[in-house]
Amino acid sequence: MNGVPRFDLRGQVALVTGSARGLGRAIALALAHAGADVALGLRDVNTGGDLAAEIESLGHRALPLQMDMTRMDQIFRAVDDAAAHFGRLDILVNNAGVAPENPAEKVREEDFDLTLAVNLKGTFFASQAAGRAMIRQNGGRIINMSSQAGFAALPTESVYCMTKAGIAHLTKCLAVEWGRYNIAVNAVAPTFIHTPGTQAALADPAFRADVVERIAALHRIGEPMEVAGVVVFLASPAASLITGHTILIDGGWTAR
Questions:
Q1: From 124, 160, 178, 233, the catalytic residue
Q2: How is the chain split into domains, by residue range?
Q3: Which one of 131, 176, 182, 251 is CB 3.0 to 4.6 Å from 139, fit for a cystine?
Q4: Tens digit of each residue's pLDDT (9 = 90 or more) over 9-54
């Protein structure tokens, strides 16, 4: 890389799964602010109009796509439609995930199967579909959503923790396999973030106080754009020599 580091994504095309709300929405907006056109992978395509309009108001193109991560046909079609619509696919952000909460002795098979289907199977096959497109164009970035839960045990979240640990290792495997095609594969691993998905748990004062205490260095809950900023960095030219790595965004939780 010549010259000073570049953090902009002008001329790039990104696809963000699970982009309707929370981290996915923040990531989609941050990528657009950095200059990218953004395809929006949505479990219900009818929920993406407002976000698409906001991205377009920034002067960038947006494409809402039906993309239920438990449906292989929708995953492959969404990736193909994004690449066809924009003419290329440079960035995939595998953000979609679920986390049914249960003590390990009470986990139901249907919750186990759904968590693996979305968090692991969906991430793998979205990466496969995007990887094929990126191999053809000899380059791309894939950024997976792991979690601090992949590095530290969270009570009542054993299945979720297992899948997020799996994402960190899958990231290494894909990075090694696809590096020869100029594809970088990385992951981010956030702590508790203020999102609709964490709102109910964090509304419990005792639980919130425990979480804030465990975020050992900064002692506060994270915001979605604090995760989105790291995603933009990993997607940018400035991160050109980083691959196979999972960046913890945990305020110091795992530093204890």
A1: 160
A2: 13-194+224-248
A3: 182
A4: 999 999 999 999 999 999 999 999 999 999 999 999 999 899 999 9
- For the segment(s) 13-194+224-248, the CATH number from 3.30.565.10, 3.40.50.720, 3.40.47.10, 1.10.260.40 is 3.40.50.720
More reliable by pLDDT, 216 or 16: 16
Active site residue 181: no
3-state secondary structure the chain: CCCCCCCCCCCCEEEEECCCCHHHHHHHHHHHHCCCEEEEEECCHHHCHHHHHHHHHCCCCEEEEECCCCCHHHHHHHHHHHHHHHCCCCEEEECCCCCCCCCHHHCCHHHHHHHHHHHHHHHHHHHHHHHHHHHHHCCEEEEEECCHHHCCCCCCCHHHHHHHHHHHHHHHHHHHHHHHHCEEEEEEEECCECCCCCHHHHCCHHHHHHHHHHCCCCCCCECHHHHHHHHHHHHCHHHCCCCCCEEEECCCHHHC
pLDDT at res. 201: 86
Mean pLDDT computed over 204-233? 93
With 90 as the cut, is the pLDDT of residue 101 above it? no
Band of pLDDT at residue 1, cut at 50, 70 and 90:
low
